[in-house]
Write a structure and sequence with these properties.
- This protein is about 25% helix and about 35% strand.
- It has helices spanning about 1-20, 115-120, 210-215, 215-220, 225-275, and strands at about 30-35, 40-50, 55, 55-60, 65-70, 70-75, 85-100, 100-110, 125-130, 135-145, 145-150, 155-160, 165-170, 170-180, 190-195, 200, 275, 280-285.
- Strands 1-2-5-6-7-8-14-15 form an eight-stranded antiparallel β-barrel. Strands 12-11-10-9-13 form a five-stranded antiparallel beta sheet, with no helix packed on it. It has a two-stranded antiparallel sheet with strand order 3-4.
- A hairpin with a 2-residue loop joins strand 7 (about 85-100) and strand 8.
- Helix 1 runs antiparallel to helix 5.
- The protein is elongated and about 115 Å long.
Length: about 300
């Protein structure tokens, strides 16, 4: 029975751990702030926000680090500890929308550096869409609230960032952060609060998944991944739990049968150890006649 109880305890522990494995963990909130900057790109963003996906590409422990007017995308290879910068670049335009304590920070990032810039930089021209025109060329500068676009002709054009509606480029990604503000402030004022996620989407060509998956950062060190180990452990735990189900069903009848056999053997042992004489006196069975039965008359009182 002790072994059985220990086995039941182990199964219960496995069930608890199995449930913990399947329970999703809530993302922790991160601090974020936005300060309007009408004379530059519209606003400055500061914060380190978890980034689960870059477009449709899942990042291993990804993070977006907003540094005022620039953003860095980092990730941690499997079984490693140091972060690696995969993409970085300036924020060409940024703005906020405030509705009470619910706010959002949106913008357009333009990646120019990082380990993965080779996967998205194809020397394709940038398209800057305004309310009344479309400028095609390469974005070459951003200063004093103006965006400089240099076309193939070589003559740069200055475009007010406030007039920019869309940027289409393999290097341009839009981002959005839902924010729960600490204080209720009117539109156009600095805001600070908490956010749990940032969404980044490409404006043009998506990163080639087949190429990125061969990247050393995504391959890990060649060992089995932690996700596969977790899935394997969960599967084995499920098998153990399935084996426990018939034991739980049969435990009651089997235990009752063990109790019945125990009491039957005790009664039998007591019957052979003592017998009653004609006068009612109890005598132990003789050592020289083991198993003697008074019913057969071979033992005399």
């Amino acid at each position: 029975m002790i072994r059985a109880s220990r086995k039941v305890t182990s199964y219960m522990s496995a069930a608890v751990m199995f449930g913990m494995t399947l329970t999703p963990f809530k993302a922790s909130a991160a601090a974020i702030s936005f300060t309007p900057q009408s004379n530059l790109n519209g606003g400055a963003v500061i914060g380190r926000i978890p980034l689960a996906n870059l477009g449709s590409l899942a990042l291993p422990r990804g993070r977006a680090y907003f540094k005022s007017n620039t953003v860095e995308i980092t990730a941690v290879p499997e079984f490693q500890f140091d972060r690696e910068q995969v993409l970085s670049g300036p924020i060409l335009k940024c703005w906020s929308t405030i509705a009470g304590k619910n706010a959002s920070i949106n913008g357009i990032a333009y990646f120019q550096d990082g380990e993965w810039i080779k996967y998205i930089d194809e020397n394709a021209p940038d398209k800057v869409v305004t309310s009344n025109d479309v400028y095609t060329g390469m974005i070459t500068a951003m200063k004093n609230g103006m965006l400089e676009v240099t076309p193939d002709s070589g003559t740069p054009k200055q475009i007010p960032i406030a007039d920019v509606q869309q940027i289409i480029s393999p290097r341009a990604y839009t981002f959005s952060l839902p924010v729960t503000a600490f204080l209720q402030v009117p539109q156009g004022q600095p805001i600070s609060g908490d956010t749990t996620q940032v969404t980044m989407k490409p404006t043009s060509r998506v990163i080639a998944l087949s190429a990125v998956k061969r990247d050393p950062l995504m391959r890990g060190d060649g060992d089995i991944s932690s996700k596969k180990l977790t899935a394997l452990w969960a599967g084995l735990s499920g098998v153990e739990l399935a084996q426990f189900i018939p034991l739980a069903i049969l435990e009651g009848p089997i235990r009752q049968e063990f109790v019945r056999q125990y009491h039957a053997r005790i009664s039998q042992s007591q019957g052979f150890s003592n017998f009653q004489t004609q006068t009612g006196t109890l005598y132990p069975t003789s050592n020289i006649a083991p198993g003697a039965n008074p019913a057969f008359g071979n033992v005399t009182p």
